[in-house]
Protein backbone atom coordinates (compact mmCIF):
# COMPACT_ATOMS: atom_id res chain seq x y z
CA UNK A 1 0.00 0.00 0.00
CA UNK A 2 1.31 3.47 -0.86
CA UNK A 3 0.45 7.12 -0.32
CA UNK A 4 1.73 9.41 -3.11
CA UNK A 5 4.41 6.82 -3.96
CA UNK A 6 5.47 6.49 -0.31
CA UNK A 7 5.65 2.98 1.15
CA UNK A 8 3.64 2.57 4.36
CA UNK A 9 5.94 2.01 7.34
CA UNK A 10 5.59 -1.58 8.53
CA UNK A 11 5.62 -0.31 12.12
CA UNK A 12 2.53 1.90 11.65
CA UNK A 13 -0.46 0.72 13.67
CA UNK A 14 -3.67 -0.56 12.09
CA UNK A 15 -5.37 2.65 13.21
CA UNK A 16 -2.89 4.80 11.32
CA UNK A 17 -3.36 2.70 8.21
CA UNK A 18 -6.94 3.96 8.27
CA UNK A 19 -5.67 7.54 8.50
CA UNK A 20 -8.03 8.80 5.81
CA UNK A 21 -10.98 8.05 8.11
CA UNK A 22 -9.54 8.81 11.53
CA UNK A 23 -6.86 11.31 10.55
CA UNK A 24 -7.90 14.35 12.67
CA UNK A 25 -7.99 12.32 15.90
CA UNK A 26 -4.80 10.41 15.14
CA UNK A 27 -2.86 13.53 14.19
CA UNK A 28 -3.42 15.07 17.62
CA UNK A 29 -2.25 11.90 19.37
CA UNK A 30 0.53 10.93 16.99
CA UNK A 31 2.60 14.07 16.35
CA UNK A 32 5.94 12.99 14.92
CA UNK A 33 4.67 9.56 13.92
CA UNK A 34 6.00 8.38 10.55
CA UNK A 35 3.08 7.33 8.37
CA UNK A 36 5.00 6.67 5.16
CA UNK A 37 8.57 6.14 4.01
CA UNK A 38 10.44 5.08 0.92
CA UNK A 39 14.14 4.33 0.58
CA UNK A 40 16.12 5.73 -2.35
CA UNK A 41 19.69 5.41 -3.57
CA UNK A 42 22.00 7.66 -1.58
CA UNK A 43 25.07 7.08 -3.73
CA UNK A 44 26.99 6.28 -0.56
CA UNK A 45 27.72 3.10 1.33
CA UNK A 46 28.05 5.08 4.57
CA UNK A 47 24.36 5.93 5.08
CA UNK A 48 20.85 4.93 4.02
CA UNK A 49 18.49 7.59 2.62
CA UNK A 50 14.70 7.73 2.94
CA UNK A 51 11.89 10.10 2.10
CA UNK A 52 9.38 10.17 4.94
CA UNK A 53 5.97 11.60 5.76
CA UNK A 54 5.12 12.31 9.39
CA UNK A 55 2.28 13.93 11.33
CA UNK A 56 2.42 17.47 12.70
CA UNK A 57 -0.64 19.36 13.99
CA UNK A 58 -2.98 17.21 11.94
CA UNK A 59 -0.91 17.65 8.77
CA UNK A 60 1.14 15.18 6.79
CA UNK A 61 4.60 16.74 6.45
CA UNK A 62 7.28 15.38 4.14
CA UNK A 63 10.99 15.21 4.83
CA UNK A 64 14.14 13.12 4.66
CA UNK A 65 15.96 10.73 6.96
CA UNK A 66 19.62 9.70 6.61
CA UNK A 67 20.74 6.74 8.76
CA UNK A 68 24.40 5.75 9.15
CA UNK A 69 25.24 2.27 7.90
CA UNK A 70 27.05 1.33 11.12
CA UNK A 71 25.14 -0.76 13.63
CA UNK A 72 24.03 0.73 16.93
CA UNK A 73 22.42 3.95 18.10
CA UNK A 74 23.68 7.26 16.74
CA UNK A 75 23.52 10.89 17.85
CA UNK A 76 20.97 12.75 15.72
CA UNK A 77 20.84 16.14 14.02
CA UNK A 78 17.71 18.00 12.89
CA UNK A 79 18.49 19.94 9.70
CA UNK A 80 16.40 23.07 9.10
CA UNK A 81 16.41 24.15 5.47
CA UNK A 82 16.22 27.70 4.16
CA UNK A 83 13.82 29.25 1.68
CA UNK A 84 10.04 29.02 1.35
CA UNK A 85 7.62 26.77 -0.59
CA UNK A 86 8.65 28.45 -3.85
CA UNK A 87 12.39 28.48 -3.15
CA UNK A 88 14.84 25.90 -1.82
CA UNK A 89 12.57 23.02 -0.85
CA UNK A 90 14.69 19.95 -0.30
CA UNK A 91 15.30 17.32 -2.97
CA UNK A 92 16.88 13.88 -2.92
CA UNK A 93 19.94 15.28 -4.66
CA UNK A 94 20.42 18.23 -2.30
CA UNK A 95 20.05 16.04 0.78
CA UNK A 96 22.58 13.39 -0.22
CA UNK A 97 25.17 15.91 -1.50
CA UNK A 98 25.11 18.65 1.12
CA UNK A 99 26.33 19.19 4.67
CA UNK A 100 23.73 16.69 5.92
CA UNK A 101 25.37 13.90 3.90
CA UNK A 102 28.78 14.76 5.34
CA UNK A 103 27.40 14.51 8.87
CA UNK A 104 25.60 11.24 8.09
CA UNK A 105 28.84 9.79 6.73
CA UNK A 106 30.48 10.78 10.03
CA UNK A 107 27.97 8.74 12.05
CA UNK A 108 25.07 11.14 12.70
CA UNK A 109 21.45 10.31 11.93
CA UNK A 110 19.96 13.27 10.04
CA UNK A 111 16.29 14.24 9.79
CA UNK A 112 15.07 17.20 7.72
CA UNK A 113 11.59 18.65 7.30
CA UNK A 114 10.16 20.30 4.22
CA UNK A 115 7.85 22.24 6.61
CA UNK A 116 4.16 22.59 5.86
CA UNK A 117 3.34 23.49 2.22
CA UNK A 118 6.93 22.76 1.15
CA UNK A 119 7.88 19.81 -1.06
CA UNK A 120 4.32 18.48 -1.25
CA UNK A 121 3.55 18.77 2.47
CA UNK A 122 0.05 19.67 3.62
CA UNK A 123 -0.88 22.97 5.25
CA UNK A 124 0.41 26.51 4.80
CA UNK A 125 3.87 27.90 5.50
CA UNK A 126 3.83 30.71 8.08
CA UNK A 127 7.54 31.60 7.83
CA UNK A 128 8.30 31.07 11.50
CA UNK A 129 4.76 30.72 12.84
CA UNK A 130 3.02 27.40 13.50
CA UNK A 131 5.36 25.74 11.00
CA UNK A 132 7.94 25.68 13.83
CA UNK A 133 5.85 22.78 15.18
CA UNK A 134 7.01 20.80 12.14
CA UNK A 135 10.55 21.06 13.52
CA UNK A 136 9.55 20.31 17.13
CA UNK A 137 7.62 17.23 16.00
CA UNK A 138 10.81 15.76 14.59
CA UNK A 139 11.88 15.08 18.19
CA UNK A 140 9.22 12.39 18.82
CA UNK A 141 9.93 11.08 15.31
CA UNK A 142 13.56 10.51 16.31
CA UNK A 143 12.53 8.94 19.60
CA UNK A 144 10.84 6.14 17.66
CA UNK A 145 13.74 5.50 15.28
CA UNK A 146 15.66 2.39 16.48
CA UNK A 147 19.03 3.74 15.30
CA UNK A 148 18.65 7.10 17.07
CA UNK A 149 20.07 7.95 20.48
CA UNK A 150 17.36 10.49 21.37
CA UNK A 151 19.32 11.67 24.40
CA UNK A 152 21.76 13.29 21.94
CA UNK A 153 19.90 15.54 19.48
CA UNK A 154 21.52 18.50 17.73
CA UNK A 155 20.24 21.07 15.25
CA UNK A 156 21.65 22.78 12.15
CA UNK A 157 19.84 25.62 10.36
CA UNK A 158 20.70 27.53 7.18
CA UNK A 159 19.27 30.96 6.20
CA UNK A 160 15.52 30.82 7.03
CA UNK A 161 16.45 27.57 8.79
CA UNK A 162 18.52 29.68 11.17
CA UNK A 163 15.36 31.54 12.18
CA UNK A 164 13.59 28.19 12.63
CA UNK A 165 16.49 27.00 14.80
CA UNK A 166 16.43 30.06 17.07
CA UNK A 167 12.64 29.80 17.46
CA UNK A 168 12.82 26.08 18.24
CA UNK A 169 15.46 26.66 20.91
CA UNK A 170 13.01 28.85 22.82
CA UNK A 171 10.50 25.99 22.97
CA UNK A 172 12.56 22.92 23.94
CA UNK A 173 15.57 22.01 26.07
CA UNK A 174 16.21 18.79 24.14
CA UNK A 175 18.83 20.21 21.72
CA UNK A 176 22.36 19.51 22.99
CA UNK A 177 24.22 21.64 20.40
CA UNK A 178 23.24 23.83 17.44
CA UNK A 179 24.79 25.51 14.40
CA UNK A 180 23.35 28.44 12.42
CA UNK A 181 24.79 29.21 8.97
CA UNK A 182 23.89 32.50 7.25
CA UNK A 183 20.93 32.64 9.60
CA UNK A 184 18.02 35.06 9.43
CA UNK A 185 17.87 36.80 12.83
CA UNK A 186 16.47 40.31 12.23
CA UNK A 187 13.58 40.29 9.77
CA UNK A 188 13.10 44.07 9.82
CA UNK A 189 16.73 44.66 8.91
CA UNK A 190 16.51 42.02 6.19
CA UNK A 191 13.41 43.72 4.80
CA UNK A 192 15.23 47.07 4.75
CA UNK A 193 18.10 45.59 2.72
CA UNK A 194 15.82 43.62 0.34
CA UNK A 195 12.44 45.42 0.34
CA UNK A 196 11.03 43.93 -2.86
CA UNK A 197 12.01 40.30 -2.38
CA UNK A 198 11.38 39.97 1.34
CA UNK A 199 8.31 42.20 1.28
CA UNK A 200 6.65 39.69 -1.06
CA UNK A 201 7.78 36.72 1.09
CA UNK A 202 6.49 38.25 4.32
CA UNK A 203 3.21 39.37 2.74
CA UNK A 204 2.64 35.93 1.22
CA UNK A 205 3.48 33.70 4.16
CA UNK A 206 3.21 35.57 7.48
CA UNK A 207 -0.41 35.54 8.72
CA UNK A 208 -1.94 39.00 9.33
CA UNK A 209 1.27 40.63 8.13
CA UNK A 210 -0.51 43.73 6.84
CA UNK A 211 -2.30 44.31 10.16
CA UNK A 212 0.50 43.52 12.63
CA UNK A 213 3.67 43.83 10.60
CA UNK A 214 6.02 45.18 13.28
CA UNK A 215 4.94 42.63 15.90
CA UNK A 216 5.06 39.71 13.45
CA UNK A 217 8.63 40.54 12.41
CA UNK A 218 9.77 40.97 16.02
CA UNK A 219 8.28 37.60 16.97
CA UNK A 220 10.48 35.95 14.34
CA UNK A 221 13.67 37.96 15.02
CA UNK A 222 16.02 36.29 17.50
CA UNK A 223 17.94 39.53 18.10
CA UNK A 224 14.82 40.70 19.99
CA UNK A 225 14.64 37.72 22.38
CA UNK A 226 18.07 36.06 22.48
CA UNK A 227 17.74 35.67 26.25
CA UNK A 228 14.88 33.17 25.71
CA UNK A 229 17.10 30.69 23.81
CA UNK A 230 17.88 27.67 25.98
CA UNK A 231 21.27 28.36 27.57
CA UNK A 232 22.11 24.65 27.76
CA UNK A 233 22.49 24.64 23.97
CA UNK A 234 25.91 25.86 22.75
CA UNK A 235 25.57 27.76 19.47
CA UNK A 236 28.00 28.03 16.57
CA UNK A 237 27.11 31.01 14.33
CA UNK A 238 28.73 31.16 10.86
CA UNK A 239 28.43 34.15 8.51
CA UNK A 240 30.03 35.54 5.35
CA UNK A 241 30.94 39.19 4.86
CA UNK A 242 29.76 39.15 1.20
CA UNK A 243 26.30 37.67 1.88
CA UNK A 244 23.63 39.80 0.15
CA UNK A 245 20.68 37.61 1.17
CA UNK A 246 21.33 37.73 4.91
CA UNK A 247 23.80 40.54 5.48
CA UNK A 248 26.61 40.26 8.01
CA UNK A 249 25.01 43.02 10.12
CA UNK A 250 22.29 40.55 11.15
CA UNK A 251 24.74 38.00 12.50
CA UNK A 252 26.83 40.71 14.14
CA UNK A 253 23.67 41.92 15.90
CA UNK A 254 22.89 38.36 16.92
CA UNK A 255 26.39 37.80 18.27
CA UNK A 256 26.03 40.95 20.36
CA UNK A 257 22.63 39.82 21.68
CA UNK A 258 24.00 36.39 22.59
CA UNK A 259 26.97 37.98 24.32
CA UNK A 260 24.74 40.28 26.37
CA UNK A 261 22.52 37.37 27.40
CA UNK A 262 25.60 35.30 28.38
CA UNK A 263 24.67 32.52 25.97
CA UNK A 264 27.40 29.94 25.18
CA UNK A 265 28.31 30.61 21.56
CA UNK A 266 31.11 30.92 19.03
CA UNK A 267 30.93 33.35 16.11
CA UNK A 268 32.99 32.93 12.92
CA UNK A 269 32.91 35.63 10.22
CA UNK A 270 34.30 34.49 6.85
CA UNK A 271 36.02 37.04 4.66
CA UNK A 272 34.32 37.33 1.28
CA UNK A 273 31.87 34.55 2.10
CA UNK A 274 28.59 34.49 0.15
CA UNK A 275 25.25 33.15 1.36
CA UNK A 276 25.76 29.61 2.62
CA UNK A 277 29.55 30.05 2.45
CA UNK A 278 30.13 27.92 -0.68
CA UNK A 279 33.70 29.29 -1.03
CA UNK A 280 34.52 27.94 2.42
CA UNK A 281 32.86 24.53 2.17
CA UNK A 282 35.83 22.51 3.47
CA UNK A 283 36.36 24.75 6.49
CA UNK A 284 32.62 24.89 7.25
CA UNK A 285 32.39 21.09 7.19
CA UNK A 286 35.34 20.88 9.57
CA UNK A 287 33.78 23.39 11.97
CA UNK A 288 30.40 21.61 11.83
CA UNK A 289 31.88 18.22 12.54
CA UNK A 290 34.12 19.43 15.36
CA UNK A 291 31.24 21.30 17.00
CA UNK A 292 28.85 18.36 16.94
CA UNK A 293 31.58 15.91 17.93
CA UNK A 294 32.46 18.04 20.95
CA UNK A 295 29.11 19.20 22.26
CA UNK A 296 26.64 16.63 20.89
CA UNK A 297 28.47 13.32 20.54
CA UNK A 298 30.95 13.69 23.39
CA UNK A 299 29.07 16.03 25.73
CA UNK A 300 31.98 18.44 26.21
CA UNK A 301 31.36 20.98 28.97
CA UNK A 302 31.22 24.67 28.07
CA UNK A 303 33.89 26.81 29.77
CA UNK A 304 32.96 29.50 32.27
CA UNK A 305 31.56 32.68 30.70
CA UNK A 306 32.46 34.79 33.73
CA UNK A 307 35.56 37.03 33.57
CA UNK A 308 38.54 35.01 34.76
CA UNK A 309 42.28 34.50 34.30
CA UNK A 310 45.21 36.78 35.04
Q: How is this structure best described in words?
A:
Helix content is about 35%, strand content about 25%. The chain is built from 12 helices and 11 strands. Helix 8 (about 185-195) packs across helix 9 (about 195-205). It is of the alpha/beta class. It has one domain (about 1-295): Alpha/Beta hydrolase fold, catalytic domain (Rossmann fold, 3-Layer(aba) Sandwich), CATH 3.40.50.1820. Helix 11 (about 250-260) links the parallel strand 10 (about 235-240) and strand 11 (about 265-270). The strands form 2 sheets. A 9-stranded mixed beta sheet has the order 3-4-5-7-6-8-9-10-11, with helices on both faces.
Concise account of the structure shown:
By secondary structure, the chain is α/β, with parallel strands linked by helices. Helices cover 33% and strands 24% of the residues.
